[in-house]
């Protein structure tokens, strides 16, 4: 870190003295229900709260509707079918004196749905054993708060920067949304580098996986064969397909991923059956087979794989698994997209923010930074494929994302705030 040699120690002391202010802000944000309802959402009140807090810091903060951004719906990454009439984004900037590089922290304010099994109110956060529990605390309001506290820390230490620091809070990231992020890019909110505070357990992700959520449909015939009719139960075909998916997931796990970010990955690329549907659910009894059977699946992939290629991989693999082709009578499943395809993305190993962040992670944690590809898909592709601003992912430690008992580790937020604050100084430059 360049600049004042006493600054790192001052930053660490400030963070230690301001834990309560950090937790208070995070508690306030988690109390807001910002569940993504897929087509619409409930982010508005929380975004207004956040906007007010950013204004209190003296940042030039704006609330804006994605629908009001010129070129939003025409943007090549825009995905139709969503309602943003009451779902504003927040965009704030801490202006530098000029001559330095700019840095953008891009977070999403929406959360996944409330999963079954919560033993407490997911929007009544609480702290226990240095962990803050609540829906969205880990994914990803904790990282958002760390970025805000980093700016507050530098301001209160009297630091002036050369380059601008931007903080944005976007709507509709969960469930393959990404249109909130698209709106920011269509609006022209760019920077020389981007940090996405998704939860990473303080690892640094220079790439993200992609993924597709499909409804796979098998069709057949129903009834009883009283007169020799041919009956084909699509549930049997669907069951065979599910067994194939399980085997295919194991086979993919044996192969290494693409270099450099996934060449040494030991994580399985998941193929998850998320829902099964067959038969007449409205009938009190069913004595015949269904005409259709639907299998909803989430399938992840590495950067460089497109949606058509991923689908063809499954179709060809299913043929091999069954030992016969579709031309020979094998039932060919129909694939229907349920959300946008999320392409994987990556940054060049020479991206200058990478070594800077790695050094700050090591300084804050006392261990070498883990620099790799993420085990999940997210909206980083919007930056890396559709904007001049390349994005890295670095966020807090915690657990139970998208599950009951979600929590973020408060010590990791302290470390993350330190990493962010020191990175801002090194990247944006101190104003003389």
From TrEMBL:
Q: Which SUPFAM superfamilies match?
A: Zn-dependent exopeptidases (SSF53187)
Coiled coil feature spans: none
Record GO terms (molecular function):
hydrolase activity
Which keywords annotate this record? Hydrolase, Zinc
Query: What Gene3D superfamilies does its record include?
Result: 3.30.70.360, Zn peptidases
Entry keyword annotation includes ATP-binding:
no
Q: Fetch the PANTHER family from UniProt.
A: ACETYLORNITHINE DEACETYLASE, PEPTIDASE M20 DIMERISATION DOMAIN-CONTAINING PROTEIN
The name under which this protein is listed is: M20/M25/M40 family metallo-hydrolase
Species:
Cohnella rhizosphaerae
Which classification does the entry list for the species? Bacteria, Bacillati, Bacillota, Bacilli, Bacillales
